Amino acid sequence: MGLLSLPFIVITYLSALYLEINYSMFRVLFYAISVNLGAWMFQFVGHFVFEKNSPAVFDNLVQPLVLAPYFVLFELVFMLGYEQELEKRVNEKGKLLRRLLDHSVDQ
């Protein structure tokens, strides 16, 4: 899966390089920090208001900062038809774990 993340790394690098060449550092930092803070704010609102639970960042910093981008990557490659058998197994296990979690909460 490491090679599949290579295009994202290259695109991120090229985007950063483009911004560095064409815009002032202050402007880039201002927008980067603004977008980041806005995204975190919407994540917290979504979790607390709509899902009624706390975000994963409260449990473990590794999950939202390291594993979440790979979750998005897997969703994308599954949508493109990569490793359909793996997707089926992951979804089945996820549904089973969700049922177990829902059952344990009900009791």
Description:
By secondary structure, this protein is mainly alpha-helical. The protein folds into two domains: 54 residues; 49 residues. Helices cover 79% and strands 0% of the residues. The longest helix has 27 residues. The chain is flat, with a radius of gyration of 18 Å. It holds the Pfam family Mpo1-like. InterPro entries: Mpo1-like (IPR009305).
Query: Order of SSEs, N→C?
Result: HHHH
Span between termini: 39 Å
Helix content: over 70%
Content-based structural category:
mainly alpha
- Rounded mean pLDDT is 85
* Overall shape: flat
Number of strands: 0
Largest sheet: none
**What is the CA-based Rg, rounded?**
18 Å
Residue runs with pLDDT of under 50 for 5 or more positions? none
Beta-strand residue percentage = under 5%
Keywords: Membrane, Transmembrane, Transmembrane helix
InterPro entries: Mpo1-like
GO biological process, one term: sphingoid catabolic process
Spell out the key features of this protein.
2 domains, 4 helices, 79% helix, 0% strand, flat
Write the layout of secondary structure elements.
Elements: H1 6-22, H2 25-51, H3 62-79, H4 84-106
In short:
The chain has about 110 residues and is mainly alpha-helical.
